[in-house]
Amino acid sequence: MATAAERPLRAVRAIFEGAEPSLELLAEATQRSLASLQRQAEREGWNGDGPVDAGALEGRLLRLSDTLVREFEKLSRAGKAAGRFDKGRIDALNSMLRMIEKIGDMTRLPQRAADRQIKSDAEMAAALKAIDQRILMLARELASCLDDGELVAGTDGKDS
After folding, report:
1. Contact status, residue 42 vs residue 34, Cβ threshold 8 Å
2. 95 lies in a domain?
3. pTM over 0.85
4. Which domain of life is it from (predicted)?
5. Residue 158 pLDDT > 60, yes or no?
6. Which H or E run contains 37?
C-alpha cells in the first residue's frame, strides 16, 4: 500500500507513462479530493470528452504502443523463464497493438495526404525544370544554327 507521500508521485508517473488522465488520477496527483476537483471541472466546464488534437493523439498512441511493447517484453521474459508462453495474453496484446496501429493510420490520413501532395508538387517542379532546361538547350541550338547561316526548316531564308 502506498503511503500518503507516495500516492501523488504514483499518479503523476501513471499519467506520464500513458494512463488516461482521469479526474481520479489528477486528484491524487494534486492531493485534492475527487469531489472538489469534480466541482471545479463542472464549474469551469472542463471537457475531457472533446476533440483531441492530432499531435496529442499521436503522442498518446505512441505511449500506448510503448506500454504494449513493454508488456510483450515482460511476457516474453516470463515465458522464457517458465519454459512456456501464455497464448491468450499474447493474442490479446497482439490484438491491442493492431488496433493502435489502425487508429494511428486513421489519424495520420490528413498528414499523409499532405505529404503526398508535397511529393507530387516536388515531382512536378522537377519535371517543369527538366522541360525548361530542354527548351533552353533547343533555343541555344537554334541560335547556333542561325549564327552559322543555316536555314530553319520551313523557311526559305528570305526576310518577309
Report:
1. no
2. yes
3. no
4. Bacteria
5. no
6. helix 34-44
